[in-house]
Amino acid sequence: SETHMPKDKGLDHTLKLLDEGYRFVTNRSDKFESRIFETRLLGEKTICMVGEKEAELFYDNTRFSRKDATPGRIQKTLFGEGGVQGLDGAEHHHRKAMFMSLMTKAGLEEMSAIIREEWEREIKQHSNTEIQIYQAAKHILTQAALRWTGVPYQEADVPEWADQLSDMFEEAGTVGWNHWQARSSRAKAEERIAGLLERIRKKSAEVSKDSPVYHFAMHRDLDGELLDVQIAAVELLNLLRPITAIAVYIDFVLLAVYDYPEEVEKLASEEDIQHFIQEVRRFYPFFPVAPARVKEDFNWNGYTFEEGTLTLLDLYGTNHDPDIWDRPDSFQPERFQAWKESPFNFIPQGGGEFNIGHRCAGEWMTIDVLKTTLDFFVNNLSFEFTEQDLSYEMNDIPPVPKSGVIIKEAQLKK
Ligand code: HEM
């Protein structure tokens, strides 16, 4: 039997999405008492879904495609055009493998070591002044991203790199001047990187043959051809930009340290650190939804999905789904002791499989960077928080606290 999906009344809900932000989908799924409903966004019929079974459906490659799923204005700022996010099938697997092959134990350990070194350097330089964690983390992560990928850079250029990379994720959802600023930053960064990749191909730039930048420059597609240099630049930015974006989570880690000192007291083992980090990724909002399009008409649980329909999976809502999480709105790292891990019930960085699906290529790296940072702040540093406005908005992307989280009197422990 066929039923119609509950449908949001009205012509377009884009403004409500901007206003309700991370709660847009769950406000409606609660009202309709349905985890799947239809609405209109940016002038287009759109299906929204939230929940574990719904995530499993969303990540079924036979039913959904990523081609043309991301709005143009997000591509021109956040993702770039022609990158892994919009590929399907064999082409996607092959391109994704280019990313996943970097995420080895050695590669991840190298990143953690760089992060620790950069934090130490930052603290030594600023022990007498206040440190704004969000700004400091962006700087450290940009430097770490350039070092880890092997992109040659001058220390003096790091602030400019940091600004360009963060424009892409800070301003992606904005309109007007900020949107154009983000486009311009992307265009400049792509041009700079495309130039470097060309020089690597012509052997006129010196980079290590083991480095990710070399690997991307020389990557061959399924037909044995080098990637278009512009697309290779987009993919290199798919490493640099989100590494810098880990600053958003670092800010939330420090906010959690401020807000839940009783949980910080409990941190004894590496496992405790891991659970604290997982709870930060579950609890705080960051990446709101993942987009796809229906491949061919199908029915699921009585609902009709029509070919081509834009479909959004609510990542934040699934991480706060009371069917999955007990008291979802309270911060409880211990919940991860008993967590029944599935690829679909905890999806801050997307769900499903890494290799054949679009789950975030950098999830392991993100977890390691956050663990290293929390361990450093809790076990290797003494510091105090200043008086500040730590509130954040549920309709801001990314929703970093206004003050950016400020600490003072930071000293390395002897
Ligand atoms: C994809 C979140 C960090 C590289 C994604 C997706 C999300 C996400 C939600 C899309 C999932 C989907 O479409 O189904 C995040 C968050 C991060 C983060 C919140 C924290 C800062 C990173 C890092 C890297 C990275 C550090 C690289 C080192 C990628 C790539 C994709 C991706 C390449 C595309 C994967 C594909 O389309 O197959 N990420 N990510 N991300 N992420 Fe991340």
TrEMBL record:
Gene3D superfamilies for the chain: Cytochrome P450 (1.10.630.10)
Keywords tagged on the record: Heme, Iron, Metal-binding, Oxidoreductase
Cofactors that this protein relies on: heme
Gene Ontology molecular function: heme binding; iron ion binding; monooxygenase activity; oxidoreductase activity, acting on paired donors, with incorporation or reduction of molecular oxygen
Origin: domain of life: Bacteria
Listed PANTHER family: CYTOCHROME P450 FAMILY 3, FATTY-ACID PEROXYGENASE
Protein family per UniProt: Belongs to the cytochrome P450 family.
Designated name of the protein: Cytochrome P450
Taxonomy of the source species: Bacteria, Bacillati, Bacillota, Bacilli, Bacillales
Gene name tied to this protein: cypC_1
